[in-house]
Request: fold
Amino acid sequence: MDYDPEILRQWDREHVWHPFTQMQGFREETPLIISRGEGIYLYDLQGNRYLDGVSSLWANLHGHRRRELDQALAAQLSQLAHSTLLGIAHPPAILLARRLAELAPPGLNKVFFSDNGSTAVEAALKMAFQSWRNRGQPGKQRFLKLSGGYHGDTLGAVSVGGIPLFHEIYQPLLFDTLEAPAPYCYRCDHRENCREQCLVRLEELVAEHHQELAAVIVEPVMQGAAGMIAQPPGYLAKVREVTRRYNVLLIADEVAVGFGRTGKMFACEHEGVSPDLLCLAKGITGGYLPLAATLASDEVYEAFLGEYEEFKTFFHGHTYTGNPLGAAVGLASLDIFAQDRVIEGLAAKIELLAGRLAAMAEHPCVGDIRQRGLMVGIELVADKGAREPFPIKRRTGHRVILAARELGAILRPLGDVIVLMPPLCITEAELNNLCDITLAAIARGTG
Reply:
């Protein structure tokens, strides 16, 4: 279908409110309108090609227009587009639940479907809260979060978020939480023992408040929206040990880090951790359709079992919970992981990327580079020695991503942290091209 680009741009300015976008500035720019995708590339209305360097907001895994995913969607559409999971079932949801339970860290056998990362987290928070109440410990109702944490934009998820810019304005609407410092080693006053200092404070808080704590919630291995903050080795395992010792649940939010992003299917695998609740979304359908899942341990699930009149039911759900189209594509995505040996093929790409990033770190405006698998944050600074940030008004990160766009790649910054998170199917040649564009864009945007 042909569209008039100027009319679309006009209607975009008149009607579309873009997320996480200051519309006053955005309306002064020429909006990029994507019309199609193929492999790791996106194309605009004029036919210009862009490497999808952030996987269409960290979701696409196997590329755009992947034949197997297209076919799975079409086949399911010929059978059933939607049917509720409230009290009845359908094959795609059952099969996907089984596959996820088989792949997940041990003990996570129960799968509750929802629509997106925020709803997966909301479900986990409510499960944690109600499970303690159902077990006769109603006092355990608080949550401990990490500074810089991001778990979505619904109010429960915002309550356990820790990014002041995003979350402080809504403070009157939120429930009270405890907050432990995240190991942001580059900006830490205790850089030599950042991990230990952060863990000491976390354990102090859990020890002091464990009788009222329902759960600790973390993004395992790397905090995404905080600026790609990588946790030191051993950090996650220690958090799991502390929560077990003090009888507090652990919620692992793998919405961003799951499905191969860190080099393993799930980030918790890096340290052999099995959380009590695991939140998944984004890549669950390979980036095709909105679908999410909250996986629970048998112990959490069994707290909701009882006679009808006990009202231990989990009174929570969504109209499109476990949508058959999304579940069918999710199954096809997991098939691709197996048949293409996706996880096994990541090691060489991760090593190549690490080498390119090491060279990129020599740039005078690159203060810190944080990598876990194919997740990267490149923090830009005005003064490398002093770790001095650029002035906010300069919008350095935005300048860099506009330069990258001119060079043929779509990136999105987190402030002045440039994020790289390409589809897992990217080739080594394409990965080199992405790094070339990123370095050139940094030079343009910081010059």
Notes: The domain at 32-62+341-446 is CATH 3.90.1150.10 (Aspartate Aminotransferase, domain 1). The chain has a mean pLDDT of 96. The longest strand covers residues 108-114. The CA atoms of residues 43 and 49 lie 5 Å apart.
